[in-house]
């Protein structure tokens, strides 16, 4: 701006007034022309912020995240948010922070200074999050995380419903002895999916058996290592905390000459892009609705969708049926059922 | 800014001069104080752009990408770029475009208007890219892609070296009958890795046999579907275009009762986070150096690292040795070798 002012022989303030196209500015046509000529000659670009200050906001929505852009797990949150933002004329600008608090402060500060329409604050797995204080200066919606105080609007996956849906995929095929391989990590996913599992069993009149509840590392090694203990309890179906656990379970079962779904029906969770559809047999699972979480976050931010009274929007986790669940019949299920009938 | 001017009883131009803290501005101490008071009272934030205009640049580097933030494949490009940017006091701002050209124009325009230090333009797989014209107005470095005209600096994976390294992992264990399952997709990866394979064979004195070159869809189904044809050629080792292909190959071999590495040694490519370390046996592979691509992109952009004369920086693809390659011995390899000796 200083260069333009020098080239045009006017003050920086005059350049600012011309660029902002203020109708009430008392600037002669000649000076105005010289500023425009200088801008063109110097390749100067219009001042976005000045425009924002006039119009009261920019065309950008910020997304501040711990690691969604860098982990292979939740990228569809970004996809959903940017598609929805674009529908309403906004562009998503992303800052992926990876625990660098100073970078987070700077990125948020930049977004606020440039008057983004609002900010989505999002995490790569569903958890409690401390909302950075400066974000309270703008519209903020949490996505895939929540403020324990419940004072910020949040869009999260419906973990309990997801756990119920996963269990129902097994119940509806006649399974009654259903195990759950949960995660060792305390989290909304751990608690919610277990609760959903118990609710589904209860609704089907199947007694809850703690011996069928396992906790394992939430990856392939967890599913692989638990096989022996799992089989010792004689389940006919198993609900895995995530698709990675199911992948490890597949390997463990195969090594013992067991077939899916004939010997054991398997349900995953996540519908993880690189895995779920590509296991043999393809994995029946429950999807984490990442795309919808991002899209709903933008809708709540823009006021297109209302958050309920408690500010918490739960997005459903839908069933994705493939080939790893078959009917409960044959040796696995029947002897147990007969035993329970005191025959 | 208009609100501040009204509250302080001064012109917008005066507010601009005060905010920019211009030492040569002729503004009374009283007016200056009123502006500062109004700014505080209204919760106005310092004008980042005005500051940029004074200092000649912002603390941000832009990353414009097709889909790195949303696919599960190349997120570490972002990780490497942001770590390196931060080392030099910059923050990475990401626009993930997904083919939306209008959004791309807007995001780039915003970055230029806000005087980012420069822009990385990056793709989720290695390919030729058309550089958006407005990016020529700033410093730009291509990452994981290149301009066919060769007129823009580019940081790309060393595909030929990667193919050579993958093949050498098999050669050094005594394998001589080595197959390659390449991709059906024309790409730098297809051409480069095949060339590396041929170079490694030649250096080892092993004749190139076109019957050992297969093309398959670059995912699990491709690796699974090619098994029969592959085995008919009697290889003792196979270099797969990527880890997903290797995963499908694992399934196909297991169904035939064959063991890895005893019956067939397998090498992947990518070192894909969700898969490579988690197959059974864990997959020996060659890593796509995504983190290093992003970091090198920032170094070239900032002038910390020079691009060679042709503007093309190749980043090495290192071997990641796990358990899917064993020595070439036993029935697979020997009869062929004997046959070649005309015994």
From TrEMBL, chains A, B:
<keyword id="KW-0805">Transcription regulation</keyword>
<dbReference type="InterPro" id="IPR028082">
    <property type="entry name" value="Peripla_BP_I"/>
</dbReference>
<dbReference type="GO" id="GO:0003677">
    <property type="term" value="F:DNA binding"/>
</dbReference>
<dbReference type="InterPro" id="IPR010982">
    <property type="entry name" value="Lambda_DNA-bd_dom_sf"/>
</dbReference>
<protein>
    <submittedName>
        <fullName>LacI family DNA-binding transcriptional regulator</fullName>
    </submittedName>
</protein>
<keyword id="KW-0804">Transcription</keyword>
<dbReference type="Pfam" id="PF00356">
    <property type="entry name" value="LacI"/>
</dbReference>
<feature type="domain" description="HTH lacI-type">
    <location>
        <begin position="1"/>
        <end position="55"/>
    </location>
</feature>
<dbReference type="InterPro" id="IPR000843">
    <property type="entry name" value="HTH_LacI"/>
</dbReference>
<keyword id="KW-0678">Repressor</keyword>
<dbReference type="InterPro" id="IPR046335">
    <property type="entry name" value="LacI/GalR-like_sensor"/>
</dbReference>
<keyword id="KW-0238">DNA-binding</keyword>
<dbReference type="Pfam" id="PF13377">
    <property type="entry name" value="Peripla_BP_3"/>
</dbReference>
